[in-house]
Amino acid sequence: MLSPEESAVVENHLAATVAAGRQRLTTNCYGWEHLFLDDVTVDFIRAVKALPGQPKIADLGVAFGYSTEQLLTQTSALVTANDLSADHLSALVERLPEALRERLQTLPGNALELDFPENSLDGILALRWMQCLRPAEIQTAFGKFSKWLKPGGLLCLTAPSPFMLAAQPKFLAIYEERVRNGEAWPGRMDADTLCWIRSAVAIDHGYLMDEMVLRRECLAAGLEVIKCNYFAHTLSERENIGLMAVKK
């Protein structure tokens, strides 16, 4: 757990990003929705835009749906938006113009409990929610992504990394020791090692993603990595990690 002093530093950082319009807290306290597109998501949307017709895209764990709105605005895709919170999805629908709503389907609930037909999706977007999973759930997610995607379909994923501000220096030291010891899941967090601000994230576990794990799980699921790299938020240059992969 973060100390009160460490929490204050991170909370001040978060308050500054909120004031700058860069992110907002979800109402169900599962974290923060980014209100900007990182480079890997821009590349994903550009790839979807280049597809013929109306590609089928699942945007999972969308919070208030900033990414969904960008997909609908910038592409001709038919988008299924999912979130744990039905209220988040209702807010998305209410603010969209009718022309965009016609290409939107909403599915509230746990993304891992959805059941898209096999080989039915041209793309999957999973932005900043897999850090809320346990290792076994991460493996389940990759298996479902591979099952749902058509051959040639794209996966885009982003998540906080062990190099984020809240993980330094305590958790980062734990993570680096686990890496040296060859542990399979070095980014796992439990109640004693959480890096969350508890007022913002009301879960007692989590996982901070790194390149090794993402590449390994893609390979196991039959997905070929196109790009996988760390990117900045506001302070740490490696605070987040982004992945784009294709189903073989």
In N-to-C order, the SSE pattern is HEEHEHEHHEEHEHEEHEE
Instruction: Classify the helix fraction into a percent range.
Output: 25-40%
Q: Class by helix and strand content?
A: alpha/beta
Strand order of the largest sheet: 5-4-3-6-7-11-10
Q: Could you report the average pLDDT, rounded to the nearest whole number?
A: 88
Q: Can you tell me the residue ranges where pLDDT is under 50 for at least 5 consecutive residues? A: none
Q: Give the termini separation.
A: 41 Å
User: Which overall shape is indicated by the principal axes computed on the Cα atoms?
Assistant: globular
Rg, rounded, reads: 17 Å
* H/I helix tally: 8
Strand content: 25-35%
Query: Could you give the count of β-strands?
Result: 11
The main pleated sheet reads as: 7 strands, mixed
Structural commentary:
The chain is α/β, with parallel strands linked by helices. The protein has eight helices and eleven strands. The chain has helices spanning 4-19, 39-49, 66-74, 86-95, 98-101, 135-148, 170-180, 211-221; strands spanning 23-25, 32-34, 56-60, 78-83, 104-108, 121-127, 149-160, 188-189, 206-207, 223-231, 240-247. The strands form three sheets. Strands 5-4-3-6-7-11-10 form a seven-stranded mixed β-sheet, sandwiched between helices. Strands 1-2 form a two-stranded antiparallel ribbon. α3 links the parallel β3 (56-60) and β4. α6 (135-148) crosses α8 (211-221). The longest helix has 16 residues, at 4-19. It is globular and about 50 Å long. The N and C termini lie far apart (41 Å).
